[in-house]
Amino acid sequence: MQIADVRRHALSLDAVTEEPHHTYSSFRVRGKIFVTIPPEETHLHVFIGEEDREQALAMHPACVEKLFWGSKVLGLRVDLARATPAVVKALVVKAYETRVRKDAEPPRKRSAR
Predict the structure, then answer these.
(1) Which stretch of DSSP H or E encloses residue 39?
(2) What pLDDT does 101 receive?
(3) Residue 52: enclosing H or E segment and its boundaries?
(4) In this predicted structure, what is the pLDDT of residue 34?
(5) Residues of the chain whose pLDDT is less than 50?
(6) Which end of the chain is more exposed for a tag (fewer CB within 10 A), N or C?
(7) What pLDDT is recorded for position 106?
């Protein structure tokens, strides 16, 4: 799937914008990131929950891998050359839904230190 197709799909979702994020491009809903595009534009980073991540890893091991931030897994890295358009679109929608759902939850209380 080409980046232009990913952009078209992501921007068709309600309230989505594309904005820079350091050297990456990002798709955001109401200002919150749900997908980033690294500068080389051959992969996507999709931010989905653990259950959805594990399911995608099991179903599509040839085109997705865990996306780490240090030792923490934050999402998936999707190889656009190996993934079918249907898989890419489904993961973008899942990341969008995850972000929207998080925004609908009541704010978490921070613990006092």
Answers:
(1) none
(2) 87
(3) helix 50-59
(4) 97
(5) none
(6) C
(7) 64
Backbone angles phi, psi at 45, to 5 degrees: -110, 115
Set out the domains of the chain in order of their start, with CATH numbers: 3-102 (3.90.1150.30)
Which residue pairs from 4-11 have beta carbons closer than 8 angstroms and sit at least 24 positions apart in sequence?
5/85, 6/37, 6/44, 6/80, 6/88, 6/92, 9/88, 9/89, 9/92, 10/35, 10/92, 10/96
> How far is 72 from 95, CA to CA, in rounded Å?
17
**How confident is the model at residue 27, as a pLDDT?**
98
Q: What is the structure's pLDDT at 103?
A: 73
Exposed (0-12), middle (13-18) or buried (19+): which is 97, by Cβ within 10 Å?
middle
Residues whose CB is less than 8 angstroms from the CB of residue 94 and which lie 6 or more positions away in sequence, other chains included: 46, 48, 52, 56
- Round the CA-based radius of gyration of the chain to a whole number and report it: 14
**Nearest in space to 88 (alpha carbons), one of 27, 30, 29:** 27
Spatial separation of the C-alpha atoms in residues 46 and 74, rounded to whole Å: 9
